[in-house]
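Input:
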Amino acid sequence: MLKIILRHVSLLILTLFILSFFSFSLAYLFPGDPLVNLTGIRDSSEQGYAILAKQYAMQGSFLSQYWEYVNHLFSGNWGLSFSSGLPLAEEISRSLAASVELSAYALIVSFVVGLPLGFLAGLRHHKLTDFALLTTSVIGYSIPVFWAALIAILIFSIQLGWFPLSGRISLLYDVPYQTGFILIDILLSDLPDKEFAFKDALRHLVLPSVSIAIVTCTIVMRITRRSVVEVMSSEYIQAAYARGLSPRQVFLRHGVKNALIPILPLLVMQFTTLLTNAMIVETIFSWPGIGNGLIQAIYQRDFPAIRAGMLAVSALVLTFTITIDMVIQIFDPAGRRPENATS
Amino acid sequence: MSLLDIKNLTLEIDSQSGWIKALDKINLVINEGQIHALVGESGSGKSIIVKAIVGAISDRWRITADRMTWRGQDLLKMSVRERRKIIRSDISVIFQNPKSSLDPIVTLGDQLKEVILATRLEKGMFWNRAKARKKYASELLHRVGIKDHEVYMRSLPHQIPNDVCQKFMIAMALASQPKLVIADDPTRGMEITDKSQILKLLSRVNKVRKLSILFVSHDLLAISSMADHMTVLYCGQTVESGRMSQLRKRALHPYTKALLESAPSFRTDLAPKSPLSSLGGTIPSFQHLPIGCRLGPRCPRARRECVKVPEVRRIHEHTYSCHFPLHRDQK
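Output:
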């Protein structure tokens, strides 16, 4: 177990290191002078330029600059955003939380819908139910996320008017920032009309999370179905039938767990796909998340924001993936342990 | 009365090239207290028979039989539920691969306890049930020769050696105190010491408990030491069936003879370094079955008549299906 932890932690550190190096070199990879890119000050005098260069430790070698950069990263000084002038660390942590919140709800939705459907399709393998579900899943899988989001807006918020068009919560409510997750923040806050605020936030959540969940839901369903089919045709299931257990007993005692264990990591890994999709959908719904933030930053050539935002997103995805992988390897009862901390 | 009586069992499998007769008019009779061996090459349909008996049947199979009864009750006509009930209490199966026939993530103890019927336990209030169940399980394990039952009951299948796994399977098979145990090649891939242990265990159970065993294997040596009766199977057809001693003394079907001759230990007259006999060719795949007697293309005695399926003929207890049985020459 210690070996597994060590392996994963070393993998994580190494990858994060490479990531940070890449994000550092972004400043040089952007078109133009790196110092101008980072500060946003275009036409400074020679003197001013020298001061700035000193501030940004530009006179040292490439490596010493990197060292400086990492130090700043760790001390929480991620630079300032051009567009708002606010420190990036705070801005990114806020928008990242909004993105994570959105993806988390979408993940929950796709699990709640996808898992049972997958089990149903798997148990009715090669029957009408199975084919119907598969067809639906192909359709769901093939719909582009942004298109689905736009259509959802057209139908449900413009034509029917059931859900709000964009944003996270109505402007009427001013929820104080605590955790970054709006639903939790509302519950923690002492707003006079908490209940309405909560309902309003939920209504804002529905369309974006559902439109992200469509794709993931089909993926979850297909993975589950495949696994259920495989497990139910395996020898120990046949053996359990031959021992005279009823189909229900066989399925509940031996089928479910065995079908879920190999796919749980795959399913949880969908979170990263989900986050990517969420970043697209955010721009459509003007959700104040990291995707929306990054796109705005790109439009406005806000180089420090791009740099920090990318680092934050990729670090989050990486940490999440590696941690899940580690946890699963530690707790897999059948001891299926791949040799390397890869994948 | 016979326990299991199967007459003309035909099992067809749906494949891309239409329905294939994987089993073609199989006959099998098992009496009480008997060890009945079912012998055949791999691919001759032994395991399919086992599956057909216990009802672990795929949707793509079609089963027809003139008769398939368990102690007089028709297995084919009864509902799935009734059949399951019989299998749960009267028939047990020991599978080929103990490791893959056990659920990989449930402890062995739980799997063993799962098959113990509540009716087999001593009467008690429900809070005593778990304890009684555990006691019964550990007794079972002692009986099959597992001493550290505490350790093994807590283990998962991948953590213990293969032969212990197989003993667990046997314990599970005996748990319901069945009338018939179907041992589907129980010693496959085992070391010789483990193998003889398991075989001894099975024959002891047979003697002590008057338990019938259907022993499916291609290990002739093991079979001849245990079984009273033998049914030889080739490619989904019953070739010959009868008392073990009789079959060994005088096999009537060319395939049985070839099978027995292929095992050097049965040949007392075999000179050193003489070539071992075997039939030419290999068993045909289910996609390319010959018509008539399926041994036809490989049979040394095949003639034109062999394209028709031979009738089952009977001499006392000894049945065979061949147009040109071996005893004809000897007359």
